[in-house]
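Exercise 7b. Backbone tokens:
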């Protein structure tokens, strides 16, 4: 059995900062995927209307995933800061 001491306030703040950094890296990854998808879409020979609609769909999916990341971050920060 390993006894783990409770987290100090300082350590909680550090963990919270690490969680924010990971969330930001994840958001960057989602945005990079959006950019890549839009680039692939432009390579296809589709009508401008279809491309515009698909870009809107890609942006909506991006917004949904960014929102989920923010929700997970909020929940994790609350969990970390709870004594």
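Sequence design result:
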């Amino acid at each position: 059995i390993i006894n783990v001491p409770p987290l100090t306030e300082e350590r909680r703040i550090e963990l919270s900062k690490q969680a924010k950094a990971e969330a930001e890296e994840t958001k960057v990854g989602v945005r990079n995927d959006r950019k890549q998808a839009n680039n692939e879409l432009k390579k296809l020979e589709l009508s401008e209307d279809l491309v515009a609609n698909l870009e809107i769909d890609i942006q909506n999916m991006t917004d949904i995933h960014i929102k989920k990341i923010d929700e997970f971050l909020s929940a994790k920060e609350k969990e970390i800061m709870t004594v």
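Instructor comment: Residues 9-43 form the longest helix (35 residues). The chain is about 85% helix and 0% strand.
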